[in-house]
Structure formats: structure tokens, C-alpha cells
Design goal:
The radius of gyration is 26 Å and the shape is elongated. It has 2 domains: 2-61, no CATH class; 74-132. Helices cover 42% and strands 8% of the residues. By secondary structure, the protein is mainly alpha-helical. It contains 5 helices and 3 strands; from the N terminus they run αβββαααα.
């Protein structure tokens, strides 16, 4: 990135590089609902209008680039959850037919299938421990 601003003038290039380093050193990290000030460990909600938010906005306008939000690595996801997600995705795929507009189901039957599928989709949010997962009961649903 710094190479794209080089001028060929050694003195000017050193000044530009120093300015680039000062402005690009992340002082902030993006978070889900705001920004974390790395230097002060302060949390700044994005809805904030206070002094710290204004300082952050000024830093951005001067070319500051915040660190990206931490996204969990796939390697950090326990194998049990990977297996649960695979099973859940298979169950959703095998029930796709039930939500098609031309599925031979009554409206109440379609609603039952929609509720079943919602329970499947909500498993990652509804359970914090993989061993506690309870699968929705497919046997009570009326198939076409």
C-alpha cells in the first residue's frame, strides 16, 4: 500500500511513509455494534455522539484504518457443532419440497412444516451446548 504513494524523492517518501504508518496503525477495532479503542480499551457504541466517537470519526477522516472485526476461524468451531450443522442442513434440504408453492399440502400443514424448519434453523441460537440439542419431531408432520 505504501509503495503506491512513493514519489521518488527520498525525503518526501520518508515523510509520506511516516505519515502512512502513523495513520494506518490501528488504534481502533471494528466490533459488531461499535468500535473498540485499542489504546484505552474503551468501547464506543456506533450510536454514540460523544467525544470518543468524534475522535474516532476524525481519525478515520485523516486516513486511519481500523482493524477488522474478529471472525471466528472455522477451525475454532468444535466438531460436534460442525456435525450438528451438517445434519440440520440435510434435514432442511430434505424438507424443501414442503415450502414450495405447489406442494400438495393444506395451509395448516404448510405452517407446521414452516415451524419445523424454523426450529431447525434456530438450533445454533437456541442451544449453547451441542449435547443439549433437541431435534424437532418430524414424525408428527403430515407428509403429502
Amino acid at each position: 500500500m505504501a509503495q503506491s504513494v512513493m514519489t521518488g524523492n527520498l525525503y518526501l517518501d520518508i515523510l509520506l511513509l511516516q505519515n502512512y504508518k502513523e495513520n494506518s496503525m490501528a488504534r481502533y477495532q471494528l466490533m459488531k455494534d461499535g468500535v473498540h479503542n485499542i489504546e484505552t480499551s474503551e468501547w464506543i457504541p456506533e450510536s454514540s455522539t460523544g467525544r470518543e466517537w468524534r475522535k474516532y470519526q476524525k481519525w478515520l477522516s485523516e486516513g486511519g484504518i481500523p482493524d477488522a472485526m474478529d471472525i471466528p476461524d472455522a477451525m475454532d468451531i468444535p466438531d460436534a457443532w460442525i456435525e450438528i450443522r451438517a445434519k440440520r442442513n440435510g434435514m432442511l434440504q430434505s424438507s424443501d419440497w414442503a415450502i414450495l408453492t405447489d406442494a400438495p399440502l393444506t395451509t395448516p400443514q404448510k405452517n407446521e412444516w414452516k415451524a419445523y424448519r424454523k426450529k431447525l434453523r434456530d438450533i445454533p441460537q437456541d442451544y449453547s451446548k451441542s449435547e443439549d440439542v433437541e431435534w424437532p419431531d418430524l414424525s408428527r408432520l403430515t407428509k403429502a
